[in-house]
Every structure is written in structure tokens, then in C-alpha cells.
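User: Hey, my collaborator sent me this sequence without any context and asked if I could get a structure. I don't really work with proteins. Can you help?
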Amino acid sequence: MKKKFSGFTLVELLVVIAIIGILVGLLLPAVQAAREAARRMQCSNNLKQLGLGALNYESAHKKFPPNHIWPRPVVNLNPNGNGVPDVANIEAWGWHVLLMPFIEQTNLYQQLNVSQMSLADYLASITPAQRKVMLEQEISVFRCPSDAGDATAKSARHWGGGWGAQQGGHGSWQSGLTNYVSSRGTRNNPQSVRDTFGMMMEPMSIKISGVIDGTSNTFFIGERDSLYGRSATWPGVRNPNGNGMRGIYMNTAIVRPPLNSTDPPNAWSSNSQGAGAGFSSLHTGGAQFVYVDGSVHFVSSSIDSRPDSLNGCNVYDVTPCAPVYGAYERLGRRDDGFVVDSTAN
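Assistant: No problem. I've predicted the 3D structure and written it out in C-alpha cell form, which is a compact way to encode the shape of the chain:
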């Protein structure tokens, strides 16, 4: 009597493989979506921590942190009558470092000796190897998990210097990067105190009483992705007041280019640097912001955003002009006096 062997036929095997393939095809997007949701939540938590850190800084100092702190002593405090010291091509600690004692980074803050010396002096006091160890660190609270771009500066735009040397005369090191930038409002030219429409600017600090539009109606810190070298430098900036690509662009953003702009024609000028001066993210459909009250919001890329010049009005004018202020521009400026639709974002 012949033995009977059980098993799968070729057709049955192909059917099973096809079914498995279909199931994988159905499940994989769901898994990827779940992972992105987790990354977005962590990004939101990072912004929440930065926002609370800034509020605690304000409680301690009775004002919010400036964008960066000038090296001391400043030789020429007001060369052009605009309140801006003459410190071009000098390294300055940025606001990320100033928040460190308030975001559980006190040890690093003390190691950097921020309260005792400027970034320029600190760079001169340590070896090239020490610079790489201390200033190229990837700090998780400064990075969006959805952005897997470079962790250290690879482009001149990361550091300023008028497209000059990225690190001045301080050896071969590349500044650590961050995906979070402060809002400086609607003005692209940062070289005058009166241009301080946002929350962090040079060389002054904003008091909470200066947030005339209300803390729940004003951007504080938002995202910038790493595409095209747009991410910021957490240690600080070089050339904060120089010509060309000033360091102020490296850790602040404006709402003049639409949210998530890339290159022309979406930038605010024919120069692709314009898009890099705005907010952006690698989250689908928008970017996250922490407002001055410490709340975190996801803002859609389709938020009402208007042309920066219309009917004789310019979004960068000192006196705000309604035709060029959509919901996005209104959220980006702390003192325009315009009502923000609660459903705008």
C-alpha cells in the first residue's frame, strides 16, 4: 500500500505568499504612521520643555532670554544709532544655551562656563579636541525625532560669517544642530532694536508685558527642518551683526515666508535663503510651535498666510498693516494688535 504524503501544492503556496504580502502591505503604513505619531509626540514634548524652560527663565530674570548674548566688554555699543553693538564676526552664546539650567541641562551649562565667559573666549580657552566633544553634542531635547538630518553643521549657513569661515580661527569643529528656532516676528532685517516684533531678538530681552497680543496668541519657538542646511546651531551664532548671512538667521525664524516653504518661488525673495529663514518641519501637513503661554500647537501648512506686500502695506513695516497680516503673520508678531481667529491653526 502506497504512503500518502500531505503538503502544499505550488498554487496553495503562492496563494499564501500573496495573502501575506497583502497583509504586510496593509499593516506597514499603519506601523509607519504609528511610529511617526510617536516621533511627533516626542517633538511636542521637546517644545513643551523648551517653552516651560523659557517661562521659568522669565520667572527668574523677569524677562525672556535674548536670542544671544554679546561678548563682554562691548567696545562700540551703538555705532549706527540703532542700539546694536559692533560685534560682527564674533561668536556669541545663543538662547538654547541660556535655557539649559531650566531644561535639566545644568551640568552642561556649567561645563561650558557660560556665566563666566563668552563663546568666543570659551573657544579660545579649550583645545580643538575639546571643542568637538563639548560643542558637537547631539542634545535630544533640541532635536525633532522625525528629522534624521545632520547632527552637526555642514554648511556655512549654519554658522553665519557672511558666507565666510564657519568656525573663525578656532580649529576644525562643527557646531551641534537643533531643529528648534525662536520667533523674531515679521522683519527679516534684524539689525535694529525697533525690528524686534517677535519673542527673541538682539540685543534686548522681551518682558511678558511686551506680549501685547496675549501669550496664547503668539509664537515663541517653532520647528525648522534640516533640508538645505536650514537647521539651527544650539551653541550660538557667529557674526550676529555682520553683513550677508548674519548669524541671527541661524537660530531664529520669521513668518515672512509661508510655513514649510522650500525654495523659490515660495521664498520671500529670489534668493533661496529666504525660505530657510522661515519655519518648517518634516511632519506631514505642517509644523509644531510652542506659544508664549507654554502650550504646544500643530499649525497646518494651509494656515492663512498672505503676500508680504499688498496695497502699499509691507509685512515688515514697523507699524502693522492689516492687508498683509493673515493668521500666520499675526501669530508670529507679539504686538500687531490684530485679533487671531481661534480656529486659524
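In plain terms: The longest helix spans residues 10-61. You can pass these C-alpha cells on to your collaborator as they are.
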